[in-house]
Design brief:
Helix content is 22%, strand content 25%. The strands form three sheets. Strands 1, 2, 3, 4, 5, 6, 8, 12, 15 and 16 form a ten-stranded mixed beta sheet that branches. A four-stranded antiparallel beta sheet has the order 7-13-10-11. The two termini are 26 Å apart. The chain is built from seven helices and 16 strands. It has 275 residues and is of the alpha+beta class. Strand 3 (62-64) and strand 4 form a beta hairpin. The protein has a single domain (3-274), classed as q2cbj1_9rhob like domain (Jelly Rolls). The chain binds 2-oxoglutaric acid (AKG) and fe (ii) ion (FE2). Fe (ii) ion binds next to loops.
Length: 275
């Protein structure tokens, strides 16, 4: 496994590193300090407030992870939606407005992320995946809170695409998914992204259980890297094919992140994002 760490202005010399990530040269690319600590403190305070009183006009749609994960979303996670996507696209404009308000006063807002990606991907455009009707699009991300003891168990993101809610999106994208995680509010401990040194190529549809059994469970579970993000750092990961998990959050501070799934458009002219 190879992790590329880009500090300061080092990213300017890596205009091709996201293509390399998709090709398997890198398992993950870490962008240090994409936002400043104080910018992330501002967002964390706003999120804690939204969380304390989720009331109009900040009408966020929220969803929960399965109960034992002690996590929730602001915005809607495609993986957990019903196959009909009933009303989902109608709620997208409100979601985008809420995201804009959340990042108000932060120069560039969330566009800072996608502009940087574009520069690391030979100028490819990054945008919300187009929906089934001409003026619709997918919600481009989700925000996630994880409380004390919260976690995400081991999985590969490509598995999501087998769900009925992905049916339309799959007709728009190349099949290997990747993702980013922006650390907004770092918990006191834990809550790290742990990536295992194993790759399940897209299309293979073998399960992580099979991989664990083949390598022996112990050998598999010991062979990983943990990405330790500070607030304002972002990781791009080949999370479609690498098994990964989020380790348990320690302490009472909420782990706040923003996370999108991404894939090249069918014609490879752009990269589509969704939450
Ligand atoms: O929050 C993270 O670090 C990873 C999230 C993740 O793996 C997922 O939502 O699929
Ligand atoms: Fe994941």
């Amino acid at each position: 496994m190879r992790i590329l760490e880009l500090d300061g202005t080092a990213w300017q010399e890596h205009s091709d590193c996201i293509r390399e990530l998709r090709q398997g040269v890198w398992t993950a690319v870490v962008l240090r300090g994409l936002y400043s600590t104080s910018e992330m403190e501002t967002i964390t305070e706003r999120l804690d407030q939204i969380d304390a009183a989720n009331a109009p006009p900040q009408n966020w749609t929220s969803m929960r992870f399965p109960e034992s994960f002690r996590g929730w979303f602001l915005g809607e996670n495609l993986n957990l939606l019903e196959d009909s996507l009933f009303d989902y696209f109608e709620r997208e404009p409100m979601f985008s407005r809420n995201m804009q308000q959340l990042f108000a006063s932060i120069p560039g807002g969330t566009e800072r992320i996608f502009e940087r990606f574009s520069k690391l991907d030979q100028g490819r455009r990054y945008l919300a995946a187009p929906g089934p009707d001409i003026d619709t699009r997918y919600q481009f991300t989700t925000l996630r809170g994880h409380a004390e003891g919260g976690y995400i168990p081991i999985h590969c993101d490509n598995e999501q695409a087998w769900r009925p809610s992905y049916e339309h999106l799959l007709s728009q994208i190349q099949e290997n998914l990747f993702s980013f995680v922006l650390m907004i509010g770092k918990p006191d401990g834990g809550g790290n992204l742990r990536i295992y040194n194993h790759r399940i190529p897209v299309g293979q549809r073998s399960t992580i259980d099979q991989a664990r059994y083949e390598k022996t469970d112990q050998a598999f579970m010991k062979d990983y890297v943990e990405i330790d993000l500070r607030a304002g750092d972002l990781v791009l990961a080949d999370s479609g094919s690498h098994p990964h998990e989020v380790t348990k959050v320690i302490g009472t501070k909420t782990r706040w992140t923003m996370c999108s799934f991404m894939a090249e458009a069918k014609g490879k002219h752009a990269v589509y994002c969704w939450g």
